[in-house]
Amino acid sequence: MKSFDFDFLKLSVTDAVDIILVALLIYYVYTLIRNTLAVNLLVGMFIITVFYWIVKGLHMELLTTIIDKFMSVGIIALIVIFHPEIRRFLLLIGKNAFLQKNKAWWGYLFGRKEIERNNLTRIKPIIDACKTMKKTRTGALIVFVKFYDEQFFANSCEVVDAKISKRLLESIFQKNSPLHDGAVVISENKIKSASCILPLTDNDQLPSQFGLRHRAGIGVSETTDAVAVIISEETGEISYAKQGRVRMNVSFGELEKLLNKDF
């Protein structure tokens, strides 16, 4: 009887560590580009690569030469196309994001109630401000980011760097305030900046009643890891945008749970 050699399946400790590190790298890259425009770009590049091998196998010389020229600058094209994602990835490494996540896990294992209580204390001024603005139908866009990218926000925002408070949020979004026309960015338990001009979403499937405020909130959640709370000036309705998706007519109980999870 013919025997099979399975020596190639033998893994050393180094091989196992190598596989785990590659899997972690793929996972973190996936979390960075998930539900962003980068996914569509990546799919497009994959299709072009498959098409290249097909025309090359069929000996279609003209198409092969054209696509080959495009593929020859692939590395440069990747850097240009995925520039925002590369910056975010390096920012995560530079700010020890992986270590912070591990600390968070330990906190959840051994001090979950204390963490949730402290988090709800930080969220309360935001919820209270949203209640007032909903009642008065004051339009607002509040963006929460895990890591504040100064280069991303510096060119279009007024720096505030203040403690989160109900009155400050309400005063910023008052119609007579010079900072009301734009977004407030919250990070590291502070109001980092106000009057921010954000990229608008290209999604053409959104409801017709969504204006610039909603499109900006959805847009920033598509291109970054941010979440956005949007209060409609016309109806007072609260929406919650995350990863390019939006939940409409969010109650204050739901808003508290969402912010407690994401903020």
From TrEMBL:
Residues 83-252 form the DAC domain. The gene is cdaA. It comes from the Bacteria. PANTHER family: DIADENYLATE CYCLASE. HAMAP family: DacA. This is Diadenylate cyclase. Catalyzes the condensation of 2 ATP molecules into cyclic di-AMP (c-di-AMP), a second messenger used to regulate differing processes in different bacteria. It catalyses: 2 ATP = 3',3'-c-di-AMP + 2 diphosphate. Gene3D superfamilies: DNA integrity scanning protein, DisA, N-terminal domain (3.40.1700.10). Probably a homodimer. InterPro entries: C-di-AMP_synthase, CdaA, CdaA_N, DisA, DNA_integrity_DisA_N_sf, DNA_integrity_scan_DisA_N. Coiled coil: none annotated. Belongs to the adenylate cyclase family. DacA/CdaA subfamily. Keywords: ATP-binding, Cell membrane, Membrane, Nucleotide-binding, Nucleotidyltransferase, Transferase, Transmembrane, Transmembrane helix.
